[in-house]
Amino acid sequence: MTHIFVPPPRALTCEGFPEPFVRDEMLVFKGKSIFAQQVEKVRGSGTPKEMLMDTHEANQPADIEIADSQFGQRSFLLTGPDAPAIHQENIKKMSEMSTEEILQEQQKLTSQLDPKLLQFIRSRRKGKEFCGIVDQTVEQPTDIPELTSEDSSSMKMDTDLLSEVSRDVGMSPSQYNVDISNISHSEDKIQISGAAVMTSGLDKQAQSNCLENDSTSCQTDTEMGSIAVDLPVKPSEANKWLHMDVIEREKLQWIGNLPPAPSAPPDTPYSARFDFQGVLLPYADEVNVTQALHHHGEEPERPGYTLQELLKISRSSVLQQRVLALTTLANILDKTKAGYYDECMEAPVLNQLMDSDLYLLFRFSLDDSSEAVVTATLLALRNLLFNHPDELCLDRLLGLWNGQYQPTLMVKTEVTKPSEKTEQGDEEAELKDHQILRLDIVKGALRTDLILRLRYILETLQPGPKAVISVLEILTRIVRHSYDSALAVTCCPRLLSIIINNFVRSGWRGIAASCKSSETSSVYGVPQVEALKLLRVIASCSRSMASDLVHKFRVVESIASYISIVPRECGLPEQEAVRLCLESIYLWSTLLAYSLSDGHFVDLYPVLMSVLHFHHSATSTSELGSQFGHEHGAAVMSLLKEAMLVADAQGKRSARQKVAKSTQRIEVTISYEHLSGFSQILHLCLKKWINQLTRAEEVTFSALKLVAATLNCSAVQYSIFLGQPGLVSVSLLEIEDLMNCAILPLLNSSNFKLICSRVKSSSCLLSMKRSGKDRDPQSLPSLGALVWGGREVMPSISPTSPLALLQALAHFLTSVCSVHQGIHLQSIQHFLDNPHILEYIAQLGSQKLQAGDSWFTRVETAMLADMLKLLKVVLPATNFQHIGLFHTMALQLVSLIPTDEKFLAKEIFNHAVFNPDFISDFSDVACSLEALKLADLSSKQEQSSIHKLLEKATLKIPNLWQCYQLSLHLDSVTERCPVDISSQTAGKNGCEPAFPNDWAYLPILILYNQAHSGKGDSSDNAGSVVSSLQWLLIMECLRPQMMATISVTARFCRLSTVFLAGSDLFLEPEVHHHLSALLHILLRSNSSFDFNEKIPGLTSFYDLYTQLVEQFAAVSYGDELFGHFLLIPLQQRHSPSYRKLVWSEHAAVLRVLRTRPEQLAVPIQAYLEPCETDPSLLICYLHGLATGQVRDLWCPVLYKVAVHHVATFITEQPCTSVAQQLNARIQQLGNKQLQNILLTYSNQKKLEDR
């Protein structure tokens, strides 16, 4: 096979461009076109042979032409505009040198250059010669004849013969030092298997020397000759393939057998490789090569693609490769969020991808013109932003109490002050897109106009079902981010109109009942569950957005049509139709919670009544295959509950306005009469389903959810309807019948025991499992519904969780007991007396609780709050023996209530925490004090004082609640009302606890902060502090296990701020007595004090201690209790920095620290042992003694400390320079009595010890 020589362009100018084509203006059209006549004229004139060469080159001297033939016409190393000139200068110098001089210079350079640099230079020349070999034929003179087929065949025969000889003797052709280019031809150009190679004009001796000195650079031709030796396919066969006219060794080697896969390195991380489904492949996996998982990248023996390789392929110019890479990345993201790779990666996958700017890659791909690329990108972007497990678990909460309430998924920032928020906003405005994405992906996505692009895709491209569903789910995640993000979606022009007109239509075309929406060719005109869910999440953001959906977009008409359809007759697959109906009901419930679309409730009364009758006859809680029936029934019950709450709110608001004679009256759209018709069917359904649950062979989550929704609906009905004038909606006989025939049999059944036995395993607060939030990058938080490892969901919503039923049961019993005073409370007490529940409550009160910030913990906190309400109702009429367990649990629970549920915290405080009935188990205060073991640390007088203070405090518990209600700002907190509610989405800090675990110290800390900022109001500071100290005394004495959850160091720090809250506040007698009692109680755990620990709200204890010392010097008047607080950190086991602060920097306090050793609540030995060795402190001790600042008369404790350490040190370490210096100063003392004491202290100590 020969190459056809392509001549260079003719008539080149000196600038390197062809001469312009100038048309002869004399030519006119005569049968032939003017262009054809011009071409004939040019061809007829002929082109001079000299025009084939550059005119500039034609004028070069002859010696330069000879040099060019020897050294080449261009440089293989230099690039740029100056490269030809530099190359010509080098040629000129080398042409003046002999061959021996050239070789000497070559050897000199070889010895001086770094071997790696030398190898790089040779490879650069070699690569350019080989890759550009066909193009170099253009540079050959036109008078060189082409290689004929006979020459080519003879060359091939000689090469094959050489290969056979080399195989026979076991040597390669390169070992003969034979230049194959000179075997068969004397011309400068030869052909080897279709590859042209240039030869130089050096003489034979020069070539021989070159081979000896630089074998690597001179073996190129030899290696080219051995191409056919070790290839898996013969070149003659490869030439038949497309684009294989030039044999490429790497390509032919690739189709050979794979090298054996090495074993995985032990205890060493290695690169992760994935298949196209996103599955992580083993290190050495026997995967068939037909699966296309082997490639030319690193580790060719290992199948699969690394993340970096996929990111690179996603930017390929080949469409199919981009789609494949994007789809694979989407699958990896999906499995990562499902927890597949939690325990097998050295670093979280999502963090690695975020560091590679994955979002920007997807955003660029989203602008592609190909629908296939756009669809794959939307799927990948959906898997990045949208968390499918979280959404499924959130949907499980729908139908439960407050289940329609939605979380916020905004990135948390440590900004609290308005000025800091303004500064943060200004800083974000200056950041670039990729910097914003590192902080918050959703906020960065809004910066890149993602919403506008998604609208264009829906409106103009109108892609297939998968792309449409991905767009809707991406928008859902954006709305969940924050109120501002939801506003960006709703304010985007035409976006909501496009979604509602195409996917939430009241009239729709049917699709094949055998396939899902995602499997059809187009879903435009077909209702989509994802679109309804997006509208529900938008509606939960704010009342104004929900109002727009109702009045501007009229979505209630579509909702009504979806609720009224019969699944089998709507033209949709039955499962899709049921999901559509469910989502419609929950969207309507969300709108009803704002008291919107309430007028349609009366219009759909017949539909809802028929649905309830259907469920009463067809739905069973004992059948395992009724999951959709259970979910639909729970949704209907949730809708009825919201309607009842709206009716109650409207009725009460109207009554208040009528009494106040207000001119503006609220319109009552749902009255009590409208709902009274549901009473009987609701009673029948509840009675039937509870009885079926009692006898069920297996208890399922969906069945428990249905019964829980019905119990909550009935509880609301009983609590708000009974007592309405002229309305007989609830009969006491019906309540008694329900209790005797359904509730009590359930409480005594074996199934209920089974349900209660699952409480502990379903608790998020007691769970020790690692949170699934750890797999999320900081810029893209999630709810962590899947715990670490991806094998289980959060315990409160697991398939066996009974928490929803127990919450509803406690709510129902509380409502019934409040309505019907004749209910036998002793039988209800068995619910709270269950051994499994008591064990669960005891653990809650004694352990440090977990997962308090998880969204799914709300199910558990709601259950515990309803249990406390039920216990409040039961307590006065029963002799409940375990009240202490529930009170301790309530003390723990209030520190877990989220910020957006402060009303629930207020109820717990009022009903349980500050309820005297909940502290009745410690009526014998003396026994409680004995349990504290204060006898070892306090005198009889001190113990008696604590006893009197505790008795007095227990009698003032209701007054203490008034103090804390003001300090915790709970006096203005009210329950959410459907008429006034502004949002059903948690705020930015909605999941964070409303109060810290040391909330009992908040009244003191508030006064301290006010005094520190100069805004203090001393009108009733003493009363507030006394109330707080009384409550703390109750907690320390009667609930020590609760206080043990707070470190003793933190409690000491909080308590010491009383001295900083006012200049004379600690001098108040009541404050003084309570501080002394609490200090003695804290010092029971003196060995646990650690002033190096991190205390919340405190930068360092040293700063706080400095404030205390300065305050003591300023206003203490030598108060012995204040001095006792200062002496605690001066013990020898604590840092010497506190002792230096007192003895050196603030030595003035030494004169007034009058605390006596018998007043200390810790042994004096704690200040004496071990002996002080710090030279500066020892000098300070001696200086204080010598100057008379420290004397036994006015500061006995410090006097004893100073004498002991100075005398002991000079006795035990007399040879040290410090001891000799101290001894010399003692000898110079004028106070001979002090001198004698220091010098004879050790002898006297030994006599006392004897």
Automatic annotation (TrEMBL):
Keyword Nucleus assigned: yes
RPAP1 N-terminal domain boundaries: 86-128
Secretion signal, residue range per the UniProt entry: none
Principal localisation: nucleus
Places the protein is found: Nucleus
Domain RPAP1/MINIYO-like TPR repeats: 1001-1215
InterPro entries, sorted: ARM-type_fold, RPAP1/Rba50, RPAP1_C, RPAP1_N, TPR_RPAP1/MINIYO-like
Domain RPAP1 C-terminal: 272-336
Superkingdom of origin organism: Eukaryota
Keywords: Nucleus, Transcription
BP terms from Gene Ontology: transcription by RNA polymerase II
Coiled-coil regions, chain positions: none
Entry's family note: Belongs to the RPAP1 family.
Protein's name according to its UniProt entry: RNA polymerase II-associated protein 1
